[in-house]
Amino acid sequence: MGRLERKNTLIAYSFLAPNFIGFAVFTLVPVVLSIAMSFTEWNGGSLANMHWTGLKNYADIFKSAKVGSTMAESGFFAGLGYFFNKVDLGIALKNTVFYTLVTVPLSLVCSIMLAMALNKAVKGAVGFRTIFFFPYVASMVAICVCWNFMLMKNGPVNQLLMNLGINFNKSWTADSTMAMWAIILVSVWRNMGYYMVIYLAALQGVPRELYEAATVDGANKWQQFRNVTLPQLRPTTFFASIMLIISCFKIYDTVAIMTAGGPGRSTKMLVLYIFQEAFEQYKYGTASAIAMVLLVVVLTVTVIQFSNEKKFAND
User: pTM for this structure?
Assistant: First the structure.
């Protein structure tokens, strides 16, 4: 390696070093330590109190003995039902997956609709973009407190529903069925402004010639949207869906502030479960095992999405 090439290499490393050091200190090292800790029992005190337990933490969070006996006695699906309805990990996983499956499509649809509406050169469009984007940068605590007030028994949302002929006289966050929908509503409302901005940038990059050619071929507005706009937005949709799925699996603040996982365990999510095991029960080994389950789930979903996107691109 020549002197000039070595100098350029060192310059490149100097630019990469700050980001890599931050990644190593705040992400890589904690992940490695969490993997190791998931095989131990530790209450957060002295390291002398840390004991190697092997796979015991994973067996405990899956309640493998009880699930296995249920499967042996009543069948495979009965065992799965027991896991998702009785075991804390199964309940948290079920709630998180349901929340993700509903929130991601709704957020994408609302974002695209807003972007399409505000992409036109109409009076006040910039102001509306700012208004819709503001919730994403506003305080999450303030947002949740305001929505808790709006969704209370005699709040504005229930008053509106009563005017529409729907009689619902409970606080949303106090009802085991509506609490999850309250969290979904707040999440979609907060996310759609941010992804609206991303879709606006993508829409402005769509060549106008494609719309002109579609118009010449006799395509109406819906056909243009389906055959021109959506295919051109596919890379943006892929990016937005990946980011939304990861953020949905990591949801904590909205749940902790609005419902604290209740009523009962109806809104208990994986990250909230990790927090409770680590900082309320002081079971850091168990919390780390749950975190590894979350890591595997997110990695699996991400790999599947990337493989499907690559296959779709090749087709």
Answer: 0.91
